[in-house]
């Protein structure tokens, strides 16, 4: 299905900024099984969707918000590794993830 990754990152950034404004220390954890294929304007196109997602990742990094990218697809996506580097965040490939594996990955990375 569609992956509006940029929109999800934008929503996470907005929420993180609100939390920081209330004195909290936010962390963004992106859990996905695919590459961006829905652009911020809602069009279904991989190239603009990927560009938008990378731009939002750079905004997250520019705001110094702790983050990580967890790739739960069966085969890791290089695009998600690139996204995590733009976000200045750890990238974790975690195929067949379950609650215990996710908890361990998050605890280990943060």
Walk me through what this model shows:
The chain has 110 residues and is α/β, with parallel strands linked by helices. It is built from 4 helices and 3 strands; from the N terminus they run αβαβαβα. It has helices at 5-21, 46-62, 78-87, 99-109; strands at 27-32, 66-71, 91-93. Strands 1-2-3 form a 3-stranded parallel β-sheet, with helices on both faces. It is globular and about 35 Å long. It starts with a helix and ends with a helix.
The H/E string reads HEHEHEH
Give helix % range: 40-55%
The coarse overall form would be: globular
Low-pLDDT segments, ≥5 res: none
Say how many strands there are.
3
Q: Please state the average pLDDT score.
A: 92
Major β-sheet strand ordering: 1-2-3
Radius of gyration: 13 Å
Strand content: 5-15%
**Secondary-structure-derived class:** alpha/beta
Map the helices and strands.
Elements: H1 5-21, E1 27-32, H2 46-62, E2 66-71, H3 78-87, E3 91-93, H4 99-109
Parallel strand pairs: 1-2, 2-3
Helix pairs in contact: 1-2, 2-3
């Amino acid at each position: 299905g569609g992956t509006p990754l940029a929109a999800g990152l934008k929503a996470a950034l907005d929420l993180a900024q609100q939390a920081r404004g209330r004195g909290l220390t936010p962390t963004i954890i992106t859990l996905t099984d695919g590459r961006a294929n829905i652009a911020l304007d809602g069009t279904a196109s991989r190239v603009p969707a990927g560009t938008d997602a990378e731009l939002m990742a750079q905004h997250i990094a520019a705001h110094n918000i702790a983050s990580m990218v967890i790739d739960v697809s069966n085969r890791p996506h290089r695009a998600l590794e690139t996204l995590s580097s733009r976000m200045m965040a750890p990238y974790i490939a975690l195929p067949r993830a379950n609650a215990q594996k996710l908890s361990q990955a998050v605890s280990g990375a943060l």
